[in-house]
Amino acid sequence: MRVLMIGAGGVGDAAAKIAAERDFFESWVVADYDLDRADRTVASVVSRHPDEARFVAAQVDASNEHAVADLIRLVGATHVLNAVDPRFVMPIFRGCLAGGAHYLDMAMSLSQRHPDQPYAKVGVKLGDEQFAMASEYENADRLALVGIGVEPGLADVFARYAADHLFSHIEELGVRDGANLVIRDENGNEVFAPGFSMWTIIEECLNPAVVWERSRSGDEDGGWFTLPPFSEPEAFDFPEGIGPVECVHVEHEEVLLMPRWVKADKVTFKYGLGAEMIGILRTLNTLGLDRTDKVMVKGVEVSPRDVVAACLPDPVTIGPRMEGKTCAGLWVTGTGKDGQPRRTYLYHVSDNADTMRDYDAQCVVWQTAVNPVVALELLADGRWSGAGVLGAEAFDPVPFLELLAAPKPNGYGSPWGMEDR
């Protein structure tokens, strides 16, 4: 396996550091629009592993599908890991097919609101552009494994595991994510600094939230419908000392993926944003600073959202000032294999103290990055295989969960948990 990873931001940097401990691949090319950033990731890997020669840096414009295809051919990549924000999904996705490589990403192609009823009906859904090309990937005998970060990704693995091993009937697959993270300035004061791309946070949190219900699956939208952002708040009690966090509906890929392969009555995604983040997002929306279309400022065209993201700290830099844990998980309700009612939370917790100590990567980006590396290893040794556009739900979850949790060096030493409530 020869991996081309496009994107050397926080998640890409962490993925390279995680992969450097594994031996399933021949080469790992770190490509970014900013060659210096790609060089820094490679240098960081080599500093931790002085004899490591599999990592090299390259420059690529992720918005140019032809440039992506050319780089795939140049480096002989068999698999492309998309580690940039979702604006660039489709150029990389198309370039990957043209270049003859398999594809993985952690966020899917962007949605477009329904033109008349955005808070009731779906328009173009997350991933629709990719699924429209499924036959092309199948005919080329290439796999596009979409949404294989932590969310989406690990929760989707949990969904398949719950259906296969824990439940005879699932009422709801409810992704519930929360954290108790705090970021401080040099004087120890708590400050606002998102743990991952603010551009992506604005996109998914201010879009109409999406829900799926089987009872609606016969309608024109196939069971998917939308709600206003921040709908139906609920307090969810997260494990390992995080405690109760208020969670709200958010647009997210799991709701678009799980119903395709896992039988359930309802699929939801709720995220513990917190009052401060919700207030900031509402203000950005009111001021029009969430817009992606460019405006003229003193003779220069700029995207308001790009400006907001540029004014905040780069998520890759905040690890030393961050403390706490983040939890990603799936709340499943229904009937167990024994015929009795069951309510189970399957989850994975990442502690910033651990990820900074072991990988010099903050916990949010590390938790996202570990999952595509695990998936790549399963694809390399043949335990996972396929063609077309597939989510993690399409694969046997047991090898993934075992490899993730197994102690090093055999596994990744990152156990997951399960609570019946």
Q: Could you explain how this protein is built, in words?
A:
This protein has helices at residues 10-19, 35-48, 65-75, 89-99, 128-131, 134-139, 154-166, 198-206, 253-261, 275-287, 304-311, 352-359, 363-381, 397-405; strands spanning 2-6, 27-32, 55-59, 79-82, 102-105, 143-145, 167-179, 182-184, 190-191, 209-213, 224-227, 234-238, 243-249, 266-271, 295-297, 300-302, 322-323, 325-336, 341-351, 388-390, 417-420. The model has no long low-confidence stretch (mean pLDDT 94). It has 14 helices and 21 strands. The longest helix is centred in the last third of the chain and has 19 residues, at 363-381. A hairpin with a 2-residue loop joins strand 15 (295-297) and strand 16.
Distance between the termini: 42 Å
What oligomeric arrangement do these chains adopt? single chain
* Chain-averaged pLDDT: 94
The main pleated sheet reads as:
9 strands, mixed
Query: How large, in whole angstroms, is the Cα Rg?
Result: 20 Å
Helix fraction by DSSP (H/I, runs of at least 4): 25-40%
Number of distinct helices: 14
Q: Indicate the overall shape.
A: globular
Beta-strand content: 25-35%
Residue windows where pLDDT falls under 50 for at least 5 positions: none
Could you give the count of β-strands? 21
| Secondary-structure content class | alpha/beta
